[in-house]
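Appendix B, record 7
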Amino acid sequence: MSSTSAPLPATPQVRAGRMQFWGMALCTLLAAALAPAAAGTAPPFTAISGLILAAVAAFMGSRRLPLAPALALAGAGLILAMASLVLAAAPPASAPFWLAMAATWLGLWMYVAWLADLNLRAPALARARSLATPAIFGATLLWLWEVGVSAGGVARVILPAPSVIAERFARSTDILWIDFVQTIVKGAFSGFAIGVGAALVFAVFVDRSPFLKRGLLPVGNFVAALPIIGTAPIMVMWFGFDWPSKAAVVVAMVFFPMLVNTVQGLAASGAMQRDLMRTWSASYWQSLWHLRLPAAMPFIFNGLKICSTLAMIGAIVAEFFGSPTRGMGFRISTEVGRLQLDMVWAEITVAAIAGSAFYGLWAVLEKRVTFWHPSQRGR
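Structure tokens (predicted):
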């Protein structure tokens, strides 16, 4: 019998990685080859460099070398093709331009898919991958937006390019800061703190009172379902046109979702655990502090994350129904009437950054506080 053994078959993960690699390599070759002729103005250096990197990556893949360096080279070639297409974008775009754009987008999609499926054992690398994957995917969406709008000749009053929005953002930082303080800091954050704090305190009384639990919570669900366009004008008439009326709208929006989540969390501890606390002669407050509140933390943080987005939406939309001459909602409604869509998108960018940071803050705290929960163990 021969002592040589047959090579082991490739695992499905390895086969998927090989398919992603060859798909990226082909897309990079196509995009880099078409980029110089895409619009006649593409710098040949970037396109030729991308073509060389794609060819080297294909050679490494054909030699059965490790895929990680080859995929990195293919990704670099795609970046050079992206730069060529951005500089070449000019209406009217030719058919080779759109074909190169489609090939680049498909290659980037495969690159992000490979990065998301990459098996990393080191915790630091896994955390870096979890941040890099959405960042790269978001950058590809911005690139697609920039190139599509520029090459398609879309008017600014319809959809400005990200570069135009960034330029307006840089020129209007003083106005954006004033609007941010008025809407987010004064309106959203103050309303969030009041609404969430009141809901947490009131949830304890609801938990102790069967009447409130059976009578108030259905009414709370009804109030939470009221549309903001109906409650915001009333709050403006009650509390005036400045930020207190916006904070009142936020309080009305976040109070009942937070209350419902907290009450459900306080009931999440098991009956055997509560019986054990009673056998130890623990009082209600001792049981609440040592058992029920820790068990309710996943529900509480779920409510905090939901309310963090509701607070931003409520504060901005409430300003559409009356506000002083500052604020994000006021600026959006005013600039839309003036057809200054780049300023509108700059305000939307500020709101998106603030909302994402506020949501991320509660997500990080949730991971620190509820590290023992099964939902956090695999992260």
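Remarks on this record: Residues 277 and 287 are 6 Å apart (CA to CA). The two ends are 49 Å apart (CA to CA).
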